[in-house]
Prior knowledge:
The structure is a homodimer of 468-residue chains. The first copy, chain A, is of the alpha/beta class. Chain A has three domains: 18-55, no CATH class; 67-85 and 342-462, Aspartate Aminotransferase, domain 1 (Alpha-Beta Complex); 95-337, Type I PLP-dependent aspartate aminotransferase-like (Major domain) (Aspartate Aminotransferase, domain 2, 3-Layer(aba) Sandwich), CATH 3.40.640. Helices cover 41% and strands 12% of the residues of chain A. Chain A is built from 16 helices and 14 strands. In chain A, the strands form four sheets. Chain A has a seven-stranded mixed sheet with strand order 2-10-9-8-7-3-4, sandwiched between helices. Chain A is globular and about 65 Å long. At the A-B interface, helix 3, helix 5, helix 7, helix 8 and helix 10 of A face helix 2, helix 3, helix 5, helix 7 and helix 8 of B. Chains A, B: InterPro entries: Aminotransferase_I/II_large, Class-I_PLP-dep_aminotransf, PyrdxlP-dep_Trfase, PyrdxlP-dep_Trfase_major, PyrdxlP-dep_Trfase_small. Chains A, B: Keywords: Aminotransferase, Pyridoxal phosphate, Transferase. Chains A, B: Residues 1-36 are annotated as: Disordered.
Amino acid sequence: MSVSENTPSKPTARTGSPAAENTRKGAHAAGSAARNNAGAIARSKVIKSDPWMDSYAARADNMRASEIRALFSVASRPDVVSLAGGMPYLEYMPFDELSDLIAKMMRDKGDVAWQYGSAQGDPHLREDVLQIMALEGIKDVQPDDVVISNGSQNALDLITRIMCDPGDVVIAEAPNYVGALGVFQSFQVEVVNAATDENGLIPESFEETIIAANKAGKKVKFLYTVPNFHNPAGVTMSVERRPRILEIARRHHVLVVEDNPYGLLGFDGQTYPALRSMDAENVVYLSSFSKIIAPGMRIAWMVAPTGIRKKLILANEASILCPPNMSQMTITTYLDNFDWKQQISQYRGMYKERCDTMDAALREFLPYCSWNKPKGGFYIWLQIPEGLNSKEMLPRAITAKVAYVAGTGFYLDGRGTHHMRLSFCYPTPENIRIGIERLASVMNNELRTARLFGTSPDERTKQGIKRR
Amino acid sequence: MSVSENTPSKPTARTGSPAAENTRKGAHAAGSAARNNAGAIARSKVIKSDPWMDSYAARADNMRASEIRALFSVASRPDVVSLAGGMPYLEYMPFDELSDLIAKMMRDKGDVAWQYGSAQGDPHLREDVLQIMALEGIKDVQPDDVVISNGSQNALDLITRIMCDPGDVVIAEAPNYVGALGVFQSFQVEVVNAATDENGLIPESFEETIIAANKAGKKVKFLYTVPNFHNPAGVTMSVERRPRILEIARRHHVLVVEDNPYGLLGFDGQTYPALRSMDAENVVYLSSFSKIIAPGMRIAWMVAPTGIRKKLILANEASILCPPNMSQMTITTYLDNFDWKQQISQYRGMYKERCDTMDAALREFLPYCSWNKPKGGFYIWLQIPEGLNSKEMLPRAITAKVAYVAGTGFYLDGRGTHHMRLSFCYPTPENIRIGIERLASVMNNELRTARLFGTSPDERTKQGIKRR
């Protein structure tokens, strides 16, 4: 779980006196009084403010804790059923056998695993990922075309870093993966949403968005899309739309960043041709081990056109020097010694069962809500009746021992109050049912309250998305 | 070894025809001809150029391969004695015992090690690093003050990201750690050098540099300093200068970024009080496991004043989501089960012997060069006679089977042709002696050539730094 340790400000002195604290402008007052000086005392009036407030880069103003992270300290309480996190379920991992193999790898190659590695990533791992990508139709890639990154988060960071100046536009689906929004904000990118429906990004809307941005004098740097089992929307871009999206992108010379962590998690084993499989020149493809194997190594990979790839390697070096050899060799040890396809298939079955359980529980307990039942991935994107506000309701849900992520976390403009993301990846089916029952109890209470103030749950019929 | 896989452009088609390649503007031509379209054909005249050339962010223009990395593909050839890399020697690591303990950790806590973790870093590891920092006088820090980063490289990236707008000034020693220069360039920071001598950064020069930058209307965001066993200069900031540097920084409200990967590698076990131990409010302290234990986990840590720390955690999340649990738990497994102080002491002795060997070989084979013999760390910064050019000479050194890093890699302004960095950390004493002998042979040849063209090695007496 991506647990936040970023607790609220604790300006209390740990070892210093309150007087000492005053002279230090509110940071913790540990240390020797000898550090005091005229400058510090002169500034001491601004008690408990940040003395570096005026020194930060403009991009730091845009950084804020994601709503997901802000939630995790409560959502991780054992008595709370968390439908909030995007953590894969790891209990099927063969940790016993794996630990022996990793020990052997350490004994045999510890001096490599513990040493610096290549900025582009371990050649063995870059070879291994080819067979994973082949499952989604990407068959023209060589190890030299692959760049290993420190999780997809860092991959998104790197591609944004090399492509986007402040004020540049990235077109994205809405709602949107919260981690991508965090990156875009931190590089002062303007995120413009194109419309989506149950078949993913709508090509016409994508093109209109490009044209409108260009007319406004803005530079559209790339489309960011999660085509398969979208986080949080749960939808998949239809196969029919994929070449159309690519054709529009090519025609307007807009790069496509295809973020595909969930592509192999189709519940029936179905896969869709990657955008990258249809266009080698205009697509940067990102995938990750985090959802299909495990996130604790923070290893993902990118495939990009030659010029972009070279810059990604330079950016990787500037950002992290090189991905960790130990993590990369742990993954190759796993891939080389286990039937990972069978393992992924086992996970798929488990997630399917959990999704079915959640869908059934929603039908039973929350029939007045709307959702598209996903065909893979980790999430259901739930539309709640008007009169309810997912963000305002959250504290009461936590009190009722169920957590979700309010829809507002997946937009930058305040939208999302009528939606929430429900994750079925980590909790057991039993807990999913309990969680949805608790959620229904909270929502029913909210609706009774709302009715008292004149908003009827029947207003849900005004809502655009129909339940299937 | 930080091996570059960033090979030169290979625009040869792998699966496509030459005709198809022409229409794809020189990237590899894999894929279906159906992808061709009017736009692509119109641009096809620019054969083999990067079609995204006009799309990159301004900051990407500043990214370039470091001279160190560009060198490694040849320097890692087994017949070459590499005095180039900054790799720690790992043969003393207890890999056999460690592998058993890591296997046990995996069996017991695999579901944690392989899962997402905290954006701030593993609390256990944040507790562990306190005892390491205490060795250099930092005793007022709590685990909540620590942020774990993906190596010091990412720590430098994060601090620059939150502090520096394009055009802002960072004051730094010269020569400078090449990885830091890479970060500063990638964030379009102006690096202004303050003067150093054998006692490190000169306080008067530091203050003059601040004043001059301020007068020029520039914002000085921080001082970047490697106070102990500097990379590449080998010098240590004297204890007497440290409070003076801090006083100047405070007076001008300039943050100090103290990068301290080598502090525990003083050959006689001597340590120096960290700048952070004297000032909790104005110092961001960085340290790393890469040089004192091993770099293959890419784990470092930061301690920062409260406001800055909070932004660093947000930036960490935007950059990498969270540091890898597996890496962090591997390190805590090591720290908890081994006498790491004894291990570092063993390394120190080994590096001392290697430094002595290099110093003796330089005295024997290259008496006409100048250097300060370091008291710790990994590097000797060698001044070579005028008339020689370390960068131009490098290909001939490689031919003679010895590699070093030309001094130009440690400056941004073309300086450094009369210097080279020689690493004694990784090669054995025998190889160090062989390497210096080969280097002397190359340099003697160069000098003979230089004499023929009128530049005498006796001009070395014009040089400022005296050999001790």
